[in-house]
User: Fold this.
Amino acid sequence: MFRNKTSLFFLFFLVIVTVSNCQEGIKTTDSLAFAISQLNDGPFVFIEENQLIEKNIVNGEIITKTLKPNAFDTEFLPDPVFFNEVKKIAAFSDLHGQYDLAVELLINNNIIDENGNWDFGKGHLVIVGDVFDRGPKVNEILWLIFKLEQQAITNGGRVHFLLGNHEYMVLHGDLRYIHEDYVLSSKLLGKEYHELYNNNTVLGRWLRSKNTIVQINDNVFVHGGVSKKFLEKNDFTLKIINDIMRSSLERTKEEMKVTGFYKTYYGKKSLIWYRGYFNDDLKEEEIDEILGLMDIEHVVVGHCSNKKVVQLYHQKIFGVDSSIKKGKYGEILWIKNKHYSRRTLEGKKKEFKEKK
Assistant:
């Protein structure tokens, strides 16, 4: 696409400066040219004056086309927060751009079919945050979830994509953990990476409709966890909490730090950053108090990496970050008729062993 040496050199200079400032990666113009020639990304669908403009990167070249106005929805209502009498629930988290592994896990556990379509009937699939950052196929996962949401609803089921700390980081412009491919993509497209998901894009508007916390039956799902400190500062009304988190996406970090807002909603005890269930050696009485304040029986969280899906405190807390981000293995929490088990990458059922 670059027909003169000046523009090509300018792109190389921009990318080399960016990469050298934030990550190890491409070192020379030769390797950069090769990386660009191998780069495939998209689609990115921009909303411009009531038009939909789709851009794909194909072997380093930007392919642009104008779509029909009704090709995608551009208005998204906030997702519901309460669901009852759900008989089948599957949950996992921290996919971090590992699209191929996530798809393998979903296929082997009969949640999607070989063609990537919904195969879970009236079941609910919960992605407990952190699709963004680290891995190379974030966009592919987002579009898969986008598609599965509609297919699930058509079949009487649901997909819940909860926002984790890395979603909030990227949407606020904190790009420390993006994969080097996305440094290239954003430079080719002439935008900062977070602008590819701003309010003038289809995926950006869709992301802003997502919840941070949801309740299904007597289970609360949230990326980090619910701390006692958070509950002391908030009336536990899920709709209000989600509305607050959703609106905070339009606020700057500096603005939020003027008051105690940032510490409450983005600090170490917040819903998206809390690690206390795993790190604070809480007594079971403290867990019971937290659950009692929420009037629920179980909390399902991501954020803290383990080798498999784990349970704590006699199955009151479940951790579903099974280190999918490493691209080698992952598991799913399986809840059927209030029975909790884990499913392996191969689709095998494993019962939990009681501890703590």
In short: Residues 82-163+210-351 form a domain with the Purple Acid Phosphatase; chain A, domain 2 fold (CATH 3.60.21.10). The longest helix spans residues 5-22. The mean pLDDT is 92. The chain has 13 helices and 15 strands.
